[in-house]
Amino acid sequence: MQIEGSIALVTGGNRGLGKAFVQALLDAGARKVYVGARRLIEADDPRIQPIKLDVTSKEDIEAAAQAYQDVNILINNAGAAYVNSHAAPTSIDEARQEIETNYLGTLAISRAFAPILKQNGGGALVNMLSVVSWFSNPVLGSYSASKAAAWSITNSIRIELRAQGTLVTGVHAGFIDTEMASSFPGPKSRPQDIAQATIEGILADREEVLADKPSHEIKTALAADPAAFYHQIQQQWDSRL
Fold first, then answer.
1. How many Å apart are CA 110 and CA 107, to the nearest integer?
2. Is 90 exceeded by the pLDDT of residue 147?
3. How many CB atoms lie within 10 A of CB 172?
């Protein structure tokens, strides 16, 4: 997939990882990038076109699909995350928002823009996933579930869209140094590095991008001994009690 001269849409592109995706696309030669966000941002670069796009809004999605028919790279980056166990008083409301954004929002945008990608030669559809797409931790239980669902539809959409020539890529990473992950302890990857790994994956037609060291380590550990991996998760949880 070529990025030089392409026209991209990045959801949640106004800050954090989304902002890094926008810059990485421009650095790779994208001709124009639509920056989707719930509120319009200001942009000095003429190659950036801010658009109002809440991925949980049917009306916003339909309007975007009608207005931006020239897109050939879609990056589903918009997300929601909460630190909460399933037993917490607000966990149902937070779980609902995570599912609405991370799973249903990704699905809705992908459905709306798949025909547009087809008419523009196939292009690429990139879903920003997570290492917790592969496993669950009670600290991020509902977030893990929403990302597992997003991973599942990424895999099924890939099968559906292969015939139209669309590259469907799932990007996995651990904690990233953004506002969303600010409450999580431990080391975090730079958003610029995750964005660059994603760009390299698109250029190489990769269907899966392991964008940082944790994603490589966790995938290897799960493949080698899932029981031992979950034993460590149990120990971490028990230490909190």
1. 5
2. yes
3. 25
